[in-house]
Amino acid sequence: MTRTIWIIGTLGALIAVAAGAFATHGLEQAGDLHTAQIVRTGALYGLVHSLVLMLLAVLRPLVDRGLVALDVRLLMAAAGALAAGAILFPGSLYLYAATGWRPLVFVTPVGGTAFLIGWVLATLAALKRPRKR
Fold first, then answer.
1. Domain extent listing, the chain
2. Rounded alpha-carbon distances, angstroms, from residue 25 to 39, 43, 110
3. Does the pLDDT of residue 30 top 90, yes or no?
């Protein structure tokens, strides 16, 4: 799962940087400020959470070795929730900006909720005492 989390993080970061550049150099210069802002919001949240996913992927082996005191199951549950958010939140904004298909706006809060759940789980991973091996 760690490799998958890393890949989701790196691809999410790649897409976020490309989307941000498109918002600034394409949409904004074409005068579509509203759509540019939608894409920029997706890019910001996508990039931040992609970097967090990469950090969690790096932390996992350190937790496994006992070098970082976090509950590994909660940490990986957090990674899963954050990965879902990193796909759903910016993905729905990018698709909405590209298509204008209104039902996509209902997917965005699902991604945002996944982010919140992921952050709660990450906090709990630090608060819960790791099991002794």
1. 2-127
2. 12, 14, 29
3. no
